[in-house]
Amino acid sequence: MFQDLRNDSSGVWQDETSRDIARRYLDPHQDNDARMLAGLNELNSALDESASKLETADGLGKEGAEHAERVAEGLEDCDQELRSANAGLDDFAELESEARSKLPVIHRLVSEANSACSA
Prior knowledge:
0% of the residues are buried. The radius of gyration is 46 Å and the shape is rod-shaped. The chain is 93% helix and 0% strand. By secondary structure, the chain is mainly alpha-helical. It has one domain (15-118).
């Protein structure tokens, strides 16, 4: 707005004093305005890019949460399978121990049967 007023009055004031005031005071403001406008445009572009990247990150976060949920379900299934396998292993150990405890009796009975057949 200030620059518009300045441009409108440039045809009215054409003397050395107005040029000196413009050079010393007004031109630097015009340069600053241009730099600030360029900076604001750059900032606006950066904000748009940030918003886009945040949206992408949000989508990836939701996707990661879905994957984590599936992994947790898989881990629960594995845990259940391990509990079942451990129970089977305990049953096997008990049955093996019972079978091993009967081996001396079996050996004795086989020996007695062999002795009976030999006689």
